[in-house]
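Components:
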Amino acid sequence: MRKSRAEAFSDGVFAVAATLLVFSVQVPDVKTNLGHALLNLWPAYAAYAISFATIVVIWLNHHAVMDNIKAYDRTLLYLNGFLLMTIAVIPFPTFLLAKYLVAGHDDAPAAVAYGICMSLASLSFTLISLYARWRDLFVLRPNFYVFTIGQLLYPLGTVLSLVSTRLALAIYAAMVVYYGAYPLVYEARARRRGSARL
Amino acid sequence: MRKSRAEAFSDGVFAVAATLLVFSVQVPDVKTNLGHALLNLWPAYAAYAISFATIVVIWLNHHAVMDNIKAYDRTLLYLNGFLLMTIAVIPFPTFLLAKYLVAGHDDAPAAVAYGICMSLASLSFTLISLYARWRDLFVLRPNFYVFTIGQLLYPLGTVLSLVSTRLALAIYAAMVVYYGAYPLVYEARARRRGSARL
Amino acid sequence: MRKSRAEAFSDGVFAVAATLLVFSVQVPDVKTNLGHALLNLWPAYAAYAISFATIVVIWLNHHAVMDNIKAYDRTLLYLNGFLLMTIAVIPFPTFLLAKYLVAGHDDAPAAVAYGICMSLASLSFTLISLYARWRDLFVLRPNFYVFTIGQLLYPLGTVLSLVSTRLALAIYAAMVVYYGAYPLVYEARARRRGSARL
Amino acid sequence: MRKSRAEAFSDGVFAVAATLLVFSVQVPDVKTNLGHALLNLWPAYAAYAISFATIVVIWLNHHAVMDNIKAYDRTLLYLNGFLLMTIAVIPFPTFLLAKYLVAGHDDAPAAVAYGICMSLASLSFTLISLYARWRDLFVLRPNFYVFTIGQLLYPLGTVLSLVSTRLALAIYAAMVVYYGAYPLVYEARARRRGSARL
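Structure:
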């Protein structure tokens, strides 16, 4: 299996899923005062931004992991397919969160659904990582603990949704910042040591 | 015709069709008890997962067949276009199945529609394979019988839908497992023989 | 401008437009007799198939024209952007045709809209071809008359829609067959002369 | 980070966002006189055309900027992610504008939303440009003032929407022409000087 074509399909799914997120912001159907209706949609804008940033960050980390793999076998391709299935479903809980945060009720089940999808995405990443270690497919062994954190915090957020939706959403947003910031810190450290490459 | 561009278009159609499947899970429009409504959607989640897995598996097998072809001529490109037409339509019977399985009635015609689409996808694969053999375009002759099985079982599932929707769905799910597992077995055998490449 | 990236964007638009056509077949919302409702959708299936085949054929011919161009300048990229705009809009008249053919009324204005979009796609192709000739950007001069035929017949179909929708649809379907068959004939002739390449 | 994969993801988002714009033209649901309903949709066609042209022009300029960058670091990839987030959201204000221009009321808030999205896209471009200058990542320093103009005129259009929607739309359309025409002028000048490359 040439890596280039597996990447083209993966990049396609990531790009389409990210772009479909725009439907989480529903065009208001009002007779008057559209400006007011647009301001009330702010939780939908926030849900869009968090999910888009999440997909971009997962895509970058997916890329970093996959670049580090010597060769793909079928099992790895299926695990990658499972990851893509969890990415492609992200618009659904985002639509849910956007709709019910705007509606102002039943946002807890929506946050649970969001957390379950993110936990599955995190799980698929861990499975890819574990399998590639087991089969010795990595060029360089990546830092395993980084992925473990998502493995713990996304399910935690899911459970906390039942207590406080806001707390859960704060955790989901924090995870994007964490996974986005980690490589930046790493890169800054590498730059100080005289190497510009990540 | 450079193969790379035909592949880019094919990969694009596969990736978009797979990602559009997310619309098979419709956002519930409820005043209360969203959690309950989300649990009732389980047949939609199953339909999403089966169709996504089907597209990933067809994409992998499409890739295996196409990599094995020396050169594309126009006829092959049209047969490939017919295959893509059957892939791009998969979201429709998936939406049907998800909607009517959740609604709890008329799931038999939905399962028939699903089976017809899958039979057409299977037929297009067989036509590509037959044409490439006839024109001697294959590098290595693939195992023909593998595709013949889909050619028989998808129409069988379609007919059985009229007797039992569950039985038909079990056949469709089994086909994904079969087409997914076959290359794994093949790969494991190759690995035992000392060759790591599929 | 590297050609590869212009092609990636073009292929993406073609692939997404083709895959969005699936929404021309609307999931029926019935209480009973889904089978009957699905059979009544046959004009939608036909519209889907004709538009999908049209996009595949245009994509193949687009590829043939673009492969034959030495270098892209900005003007050519804008003309290509205009072509992509006409391709990306094809789902709209297809939705129109599918809806109003199924509804059984007002299919003439839908066929006019379809014809206008196809005439614009045909016009953009002619503009690309004329510009590339004028600036001497072609490697080999393509047969100009092939494109001229679409330039005449799509507007003719548009006008005839006002007299008979069926006649217009027959012309649109014939155009796909013509543009699809022309290179096949050409290829068969080349094969007889001992060259396998198109 | 290999540039090719970052470009594939970017091109995918641009292509999908452009193609989703087709949904800004809503299929009329009428019992009679579809022709009249289609003519009344002309502001939706205009909104589609302006947004499609805007995305094509931004994509071409994005390409010109990115081709000119030696190496991507994580920060640049995040800034690119922010740009893509603003591109992927363009269908939303386009849907708004199309719907409320056709409805004939509340088009001012829609034009404000459009202007805000365009201002953010313009801002993300400026941030990429500033960062690449600061880190000395450019091969050739691009003309900075070109981007500054969008930086000023899109917010101006946004504010003017509150006074006159038509004036704001004229500014948005003029920006596409400006950003599209600038490289053409530049290219024509380069051609006169004997260099064909942009």
